[in-house]
Amino acid sequence: MDGPSHRRRIAVEAETRLRCAIITISDTRTVDDDVSGDTIMRALTDDGHEVIYRTIVPDDGERILAALDEALALNVAVIVTNGGTGIARRDVTFEFLQGRLERTLPGFGELFRALSFPEIGPAAILTRATAGTIAETLVFVLPGSPHAVETALDGLILPDLPHLAWEITRR
Q1: pLDDT, tens digit, for every residue of 106-121?
Q2: 137: number of CA atoms within 13 Å, CB side?
Q3: Looking at the domain assignment, is residue 85 inside a domain?
Q4: Which of 150, 161, 164 is nearest to 40 (CA)?
Q5: pTM, two decimal places
Q6: CB atoms < 10 A from the CB of 46, how many?
Q7: Residue 43 included in any domain
Q8: Chain centroid to CA 104: how far?
Q9: Which residue, among 160, 115, 149, 114, has the nearest Cα to 43 in the 3D structure?
Q10: Is residue 74 predicted with pLDDT exceeding 70?
């Protein structure tokens, strides 16, 4: 039976303090002005999770994949990327990360765009935000806008993160 009590039971069974990684993808951001990365860091740690890896890489497919592999090697449960999900020529995050996802969560991108539409209108279709798994790691691919990051974290990711992590590791 689904519902709030079922979700509470699952959350209790799930590991609630997750090891996380943050990858900011930008040609212009630095540690001093990575507002979206800071937003993700604050949201994850405020929710009780541990961020053990954080980096900024340029909009370059090979560098994105190298950062992804570094994070995966640390055996994190969650990787949150931000940046490079638009349709500009330099936005290559989607192409490179989508190809690495073993299982996709199409509903994530659909719901993210639905949540974004009331705020930004038809421009919501410009994002290629997505999510999926690589082995037993959840991967969330978010736009670089701080507001978009907050929308995804508050509306989709944080409310059910321990349950999602539990789901991909249960047998």
Answers
A1: 999 999 999 999 999 9
A2: 25
A3: yes
A4: 150
A5: 0.91
A6: 9
A7: yes
A8: 12
A9: 149
A10: yes
pLDDT at residue 170, as a whole number: 86
Q: Which of 69, 43, 54, 59 is nearest to 144 (CA)?
A: 59
Q: Is residue 73 part of a domain?
A: yes
Give the domain range for residue 67: 17-169
Q: Residue 17's pLDDT is what?
A: 92
**Tokens matching residue 103:** 């299982």
Check if the beta carbon of residue 86 is closer than 8 Å to that of residue 52: no
Residue pair 35/146 in contact (Cβ under 8 Å)? The answer is yes
Q: Please state, in angstroms and rounded to a whole number, the distance separating the CA atoms of residues 108 and 79.
A: 15
Residue 71 domain-assigned (yes or no): yes
Q: The tokens 């936005």 sit on which residue?
A: 91
Please report, for the domain that includes residue 100, its CATH number: 3.40.980.10
Q: How many domains does the chain have?
A: 1
Which token pair is 55?
Answer: 């980096």
